[in-house]
Target: TadE-like domain-containing protein
Amino acid sequence: MMRRLRSDRGSAAVELAILFPAVLLLLFASIQTAAWFLARNVAMTAAQEAVTAQRAYNAPDGAGHARATRFLNGAGDWLVGPTVTVVRDGDDVSATVTGRSLRFVVAFDVSQTAHGRVERFSSEEQP
Model:
């Protein structure tokens, strides 16, 4: 008959104590990554909305900013402290939306920019 030299009692608790912090770290990192991607998506969509509104034919000044702000107000809190900057330079419009991602572990800065050409009527004589 063979005798055990060592007992395995309690080894599961030790293994769990070593493994559990790594599992929690991966869980929170994946949640934070998802929050960052959602914040980027919200910022990009708001910038695109601003460009769409500001590039319209005869759009008044501030139309893009108002549309982006309205979108951000309805998009939830995924983007914290958003700021909208719309610049119309000749035939080009660009909109930049900046903010921070929702914080679970660390809040990351988010900045997204969209560009577009101003709509105008043209004819065969003047393209």
Notes: The CA atoms of residues 32 and 103 lie 7 Å apart.
